[in-house]
């Protein structure tokens, strides 16, 4: 059931379709109210709420045209924002706007308003009514609600196109994933150096190509307990698999038919529901686009890099390597290939170092991000952070920084060394001293 809900949540047309269906029901409901109820309770209804059929046709015709125009304008605005997200930020960030619930609710409200007024206009016939109707007043109320929604939508768009808002959303996505893994590890995950399953080994292969988007750990564990299985997940979330690629290695003590495909979602694109690597990658891509010659906005990149440093510090508290999920009796049930902190550091910074090595501020922000990660992480990960610093300095070999630039970067390097209680590395050892 959760998998079906997840798949439906990914479909963008669902929300506008629901609003449109409700509008059809509302229009039919007030058609019968006008036909069967109004005349019976006429004396209790204020005259201002009622109109004759000719006036109702005029008003509803005008409202239907106006709402259709607003719907068209809203759709055009959405397309403009999508284009801006793709060109200014990153194609991977489109989903942040596309899956914004308010955007599609606004479009659904306008479609619903248009459908209600159009259908009500179709029902307005002199042959059906010998009295005034109330459907027009309801249509006017809906039109005012659409107008208010449109004003709020403009405010929402103006707020969300700001890069700081996008960065905050990306950071919250990454932090949410870190918190979910941390909570999961505290509950029933543990690090196991040995994995000694019993039973007959059986491979479960992928049914289609795509990225692993979601794994239902809890349901998979319950299924393993129910059927007395031990399941080894062979690919991490975010990995691309082909059809017939082995997904699970299952150890079972009795030969029986099992189905594990319902516990995994494979789609055509990566998502940030559980994919921590992709969540950080989106922030990295926005930073890379900011320091590109076409955009030339290094200050935005610097802010993102420093935020990434804080996330890495928080991420370092997660257990890395192969993670085992146990049942209530502390028996190993599911084994998952989690990332290593060293590998994650490299994937996060290697592109930033390559494309930002000629900008003093970007280099300084990378070192500051490493310092922030050091201050928030455990000492066991300091060696990996130190190696990342050395990787950065290797890219700076022969960099033509001037005296004040070198002094500024050296101050950042000293702060990193102090955070680790180590001897600082001299930047001059990795550069050509043009001012000597």
UniProtKB/TrEMBL annotation:
This is Putative membrane protein. It comes from Planococcus citreus. Keywords: Coiled coil, Membrane, Transmembrane, Transmembrane helix. Residues 160-187 form a coiled coil. InterPro entries: DUF2254_membrane (IPR018723). The chain crosses the membrane at residues 12-38, 59-82, 102-121, 133-154. It holds the Pfam family DUF2254.
């Amino acid at each position: 059931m959760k998998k079906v809900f997840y798949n439906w949540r990914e479909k963008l047309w669902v929300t506008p379709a629901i609003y449109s269906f409700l509008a059809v029901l509302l229009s039919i409901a007030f058609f019968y109210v006008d036909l069967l109820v109004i005349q019976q309770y006429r004396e209790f209804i204020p005259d201002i709420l009622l109109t004759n059929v000719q006036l109702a046709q005029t008003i509803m015709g005008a409202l239907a045209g106006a709402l259709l125009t607003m719907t068209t304008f809203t759709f055009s605005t959405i397309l403009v924002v999508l284009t801006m997200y793709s060109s200014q930020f990153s194609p991977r960030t489109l989903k942040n706007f596309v899956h914004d619930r308010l955007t599609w609710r606004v479009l659904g409200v306008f479609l619903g308003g248009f459908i209600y007024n159009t259908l009500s206009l179709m029902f307005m016939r002199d042959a059906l009514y010998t009295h005034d109707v109330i459907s027009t007043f309801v249509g006017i109320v809906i039109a005012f609600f659409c107008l208010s929604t449109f004003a709020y939508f403009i405010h929402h768009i103006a707020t969300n196109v700001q890069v700081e808002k996008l960065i905050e959303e990306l950071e919250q996505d990454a932090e949410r994933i870190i918190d979910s893994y941390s909570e999961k590890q505290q509950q029933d995950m543990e690090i196991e150096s040995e994995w000694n399953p019993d039973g007959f080994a059986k491979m479960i292969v992928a049914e289609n190509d795509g990225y692993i988007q979601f794994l239902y750990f809890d349901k998979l564990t319950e299924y393993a307990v129910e059927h007395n299985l031990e399941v080894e997940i062979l690919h991490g979330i975010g990995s691309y698999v082909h059809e017939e690629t082995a997904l699970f290695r299952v150890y079972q003590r009795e030969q029986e038919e099992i189905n594990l495909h319902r516990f995994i979602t494979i789609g055509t694109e990566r998502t940030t529901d559980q994919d921590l690597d992709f969540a950080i990658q989106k922030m990295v891509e926005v930073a890379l686009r900011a320091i590109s010659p076409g955009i030339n906005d290094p200050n935005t990149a610097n802010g993102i890099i420093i935020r990434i440093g804080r996330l890495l510090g928080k991420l370092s508290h997660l257990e890395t390597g192969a993670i085992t999920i146990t049942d209530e009796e502390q028996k190993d049930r599911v084994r998952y290939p989690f990332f290593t902190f060293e590998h994650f550091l490299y994937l996060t910074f290697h592109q930033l170092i390559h494309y930002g090595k000629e900008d003093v501020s970007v280099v300084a922000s990378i070192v500051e991000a490493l310092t922030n990660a050091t201050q928030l992480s455990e000492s066991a990960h300091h060696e990996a952070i130190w190696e990342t610093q050395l990787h950065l300095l290797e890219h700076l070999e022969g960099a033509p920084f001037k005296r004040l630039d070198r002094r500024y970067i050296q101050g950042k390097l000293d702060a990193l060394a102090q955070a680790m209680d180590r001897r600082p590395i001299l930047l001059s050892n990795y550069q050509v001293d043009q001012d000597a």
